[in-house]
Amino acid sequence: MNKKILIVEDNVSVSELMSNYLKNEGYYLSNAFEGEEAVQKFKSEKFDLIILDIMMPKLSGLEVMKQIRLDSSIPILIVSAKTDDVEKALGLELGADDYLAKPFSMIEFSARVKAALRRANYSKDENNGTVFHYMDLTVDSKNFSVRKQEEKIQLTAKEFEILKLFLSHPNNVFTKSQIYQNVWHDDYFGDENVINVHIRRLREKIEEVPSKPKYITTIWGIGYKLGE
Question: Minimal CA–CA distance to 216: which of 145, 165, 182, 142?
């Protein structure tokens, strides 16, 4: 079954370029040219991936992503001319799965799209219904739910997969490269910012004192592990 992709890009020529390339690769495409239109299409249609520009009229790409993440863990690939680390980190913090800076080659663009869709399918296939209990955390991989005592904690898809990775291998120390390969299911290109942001956001949600973590701790010079 061919995947359906929503491209949210206000530049018509760029939108057409991406759309035509992906159509030739067999994907179904839908286009939105401003933020409010993107939100409406997301609510009325079913998509497998969203390609999202940040600088959008009416509603910015980041605001669009905030609204989508209230209801869905659908893969989101940001494509943006904003290339500084602050914007990239903000996009990842709000729930983007990947970030591609403009200008980019169509070959790289296609590879990022395929990787995002592959990771989403892998996560679905691996969802075998295991329930993990650790300290006062209960993590149910079938229902995609996390509870701390009786309080429900809302995680993004990548935050959930990182937590599940540690719970599945409680005695392992994972390097950033290993975390990326296990959670993103793709080659690691040394972009530590991606891992740093996701670990920090995960700690902010599950730790009592994020600066003194007890669930996911840092092994300096190596990586991270479960427990103190």
Answer: 165
Residue type, 225: K
Taking residue 110's Cβ as centre, other Cβ atoms within 10 Å add up to: 16
CA distance 118 to 125: 11
Cβ neighbour number for residue 4 with a 10 Å cutoff: 14
Distance CA 206, CA 202 (A): 6
Model confidence pTM above 0.70 = no
Residue type, 54: I
pLDDT tens-digit series, residues 195-218:
888 899 999 999 999 989 999 999
Give CA–CA dist 167/206, Å, rounded.
13
Q: What secondary structure letter does DSSP report for 96?
A: -
User: Which residue numbers in the chain have pLDDT < 50?
Assistant: 125
The reported pLDDT for the residue numbered 135 is 87
Quote the CA–CA distance of 47 and 136 in Å, as a whole number: 35
The strands making up 145-148's β-sheet, listed across from edge to edge, are 131-134, 137-140, 145-148, 151-153
Quote the tokens at residue 139. Answer: 């993590």
Peptide bond between residue 170 and the one before it cis (omega within 30 degrees of 0) = no
